[in-house]
């Protein structure tokens, strides 16, 4: 009976704590965010013949979105069909055109783009990156993806698995970034700036990685992704659902821009404010209230509770099993 009562007490305490948290009123100056979903087919994404069409799609949807006067526009992972800031082929001209477009909208843009750096030995360092462009089109911040997808962005044990090709075709394997970047979105005249961070693609499924950005000061989390690979399966919706947990764990709102969906917004309580359908052109604009200065237990300490539980299990398994030596009714205690 005691174990059952203990379980009920724990469940009741959890439910009560959750109910109290949900009743709390979130205060603060809202941040208006627009997410753009271009719905670009995977086989067209890097086809030079469709380059102008891809860029035109994102610019057209963005022009519609900025009519609602957002503070930030977000494009998905590798939304630009070129290497932003690159020095080869059409990269410089297309980079300059995008900067000019941002200036015409007067709205900061967070966009995904592949990044490369040419080494003296003529090899390349390739990264999956996110760029924050300020209202004047200048680069305000850059984040290089930290947690790469094995066999998607690089091949582990490449010397052994030399016959395996990664899913993303590029000039080489992607390399990891080195910094958990917290970006600063400058407010309009008379308004305060807002610190936020972004994670790319499947980085959103790793709780400890996301919390590290919030622990460093991010008050809004964004995530950019391209889920076109998964087609019309449950995977895009499952991927979106992971963002709900990250919002609740750190009590921060999350904005998500996905190439083919699901794009949307989640508030700091884990409620889905808006979401798109998959494989449709769309944009959404919502007001998000940035998190306050108080960090959650999980943001501060991470998976310490899980490690304590694992340690307790190991201790219990290590304890010697207790044997019942009490005499049975009718048995001879000397036998």
Proportion of residues in helical segments: 25-40%
Given the structure, what is the number of helices?
A: 7
Structural class: alpha/beta
What series of H and E elements makes up the topology?
Answer: HEHEHEEEEEHEHEEEEHH
What fraction strand? Answer: 15-25%
Straight-line distance between termini: 34 Å
* Rg from alpha-carbon coordinates: 25 Å
CATH class: Alpha Beta
Looking at CATH, the homologous superfamily is: Carbon-nitrogen hydrolase
In round numbers, the mean pLDDT is 88
Structurally, the number of domains stands at: 1
* Spatial sequence of strands, sheet with the most strands: 5-4-3-2-1-12
Large-scale geometry: globular
Largest sheet: 6 strands, mixed
Structural commentary:
- This protein is α/β, with parallel strands linked by helices.
- It starts with a helix and ends in a 17-residue tail after the last helix.
- Helix 4 packs across helix 5.
- It has a single domain, classed as Nitrilase/N-carbamoyl-D-aminoacid amidohydrolase (4-Layer Sandwich).
- A hairpin with a 5-residue loop joins strand 9 and strand 10 (264-266).
- The strands form 2 sheets. Strands 5-4-3-2-1-12 form a 6-stranded mixed β-sheet, covered by helices on one side. A 6-stranded mixed β-sheet has the order 6-7-8-9-10-11, covered by helices on one side.
- It has 7 helices and 12 strands.
- The model has no long low-confidence stretch (mean pLDDT 88).
Q: What labels describe this entry?
A:
single chain; six-stranded mixed β-sheet; 335 residues; alpha/beta; Nitrilase/N-carbamoyl-D-aminoacid amidohydrolase
